[in-house]
Amino acid sequence: MKIALDAMGGDFGPSVTVRGAIEAAPHIQGEILLVGKEDAIQSHLPSNPPANVRIVHAPNEIEMGEEPANAVRRKKDSSLVVAAKMVKTGEADAFVSAGNTGAVTAAAHLFWKCAPSISRPAIATILPSRRERFVLIDSGATPDASVRNLLEFAVMGTAYAEAVLGIEQPKVALLNIGEEPSKGNALTKEAYKAFSAYLPNFAGNIEGKALFHGGADVVVCDAFVGNVLLKTAEGLGSFVMEMFKESVPKNPILRLPLLLLRKGLEDMKRKMDYAEIGGAPLLGVNGICFICHGHSDEKAIRNALLNAHRGYVRHLTDLIEQKACTLKGAVNA
After folding, report:
1. What is the DSSP letter of 80?
2. How far apart are CA 75 and CA 68, in angstroms?
3. Type and span of the H or E element at 37
4. Contact status, residue 109 vs residue 121, Cβ threshold 8 Å
5. Of 105, 221, 258, 286, which sits with the fewest C-beta atoms within 10 Å of its C-beta?
6. Upstream peptide bond of 77 is cis (omega within 30 degrees of 0)
7. What is the pTM (predicted TM-score) of this model?
């Protein structure tokens, strides 16, 4: 297999993406294609790079602040667009980028289209919980979702949880303002009925306060709600860590008891570190696509590449289509 990595993507570009690729290379059964400005990439490669890492020159790049759809159409020679098109033409089997999220989504959707039984794509974000982790879907691709879209998100999230995270028979929940079927707006009420009819692993509604307690493996919502939740969680996590650091005594002697908490704190930090997951998959398109945080370091890039490899090897796109086929005849609203 071949993974096209947008080497110019992210806040740090080749200084991070190249190192991430080098770290991932020994674990990839195939090639990592570093797509971007050849000179910039070459300057960060070691003198003897892994044999399965090579450069594909792309002279331009899409900046973080650019309007996604226009940038994809205008900058056909950008690293992001070239990498996405390589999957379309069969020159690559997966696409990884830490670049402009909207542009990555637009490129994959524009060039690859959705899978036959999927009407809209969704971004699946992995979040920590008391049961290790859960999949939040959609966290950014489809803000105006229908009942049918939410059903598709549920089966896509289930497929990802099984194929990449290794969760057997993942439980699916619908994010809502209450647990009762009668709670919520018109969309979530109708979605509850559809989920109950078509999803054997449906565990009911789940409230925001219960998300991190491990009540579900896959949590479904539209992208507007999902993105607000995701950014609120990120902000709250940063706030808690800052408050903890400020409360630590300045006196070294008074700080000694904290050594007893060191392992627990390190475990907590690891569990909450987005770099451990690497990136969020864009599901529902005809290909493997992972979108990394713009501030990703080499560890995050490495893990995104490994998850892309795992998704391809375990036939993630085929599994999604297989599960989505079971929704034939389901509500089209």
Report:
1. H
2. 10
3. none
4. yes
5. 258
6. no
7. 0.89
d(CA 249, CA 96): 42
Taking residues 184-202, report their average pLDDT. Answer: 95
Sheet containing 132-137: give its strands across.
Answer: 53-57, 31-36, 2-6, 94-97, 288-291, 280-283, 122-129, 132-137, 218-220, 172-175, 202-206
Gap between the Cα atoms of 32 and 78, Å rounded: 18
For the chain, percent helix, then strand, then coil, each to nearest 5?
A: 50, 15, 35
| Distance separating alpha carbons of residues 251 and 197, to the nearest angstrom | 61
Structure tokens at 273: 């570190």
CB-CB neighbours of 26 under 10 Å:
8
Number of Cα atoms under 13 Å in the Cβ half of residue 280: 27
CB 205 within 8 A of CB 174: yes
- If residue 129 lies in a helix (H) or strand (E), which one and from where to where? strand 122-129
> Does residue 12 surpass a pLDDT of 80?
yes
CA distance 232 to 52: 40
Mean of pLDDT over the chain: 91
| Domains of the chain as residue ranges with CATH | 2-118+277-315 (3.40.718.10), 122-247 (3.40.718.10)
pLDDT for the residue numbered 31 = 97
pLDDT number for residue 255: 75
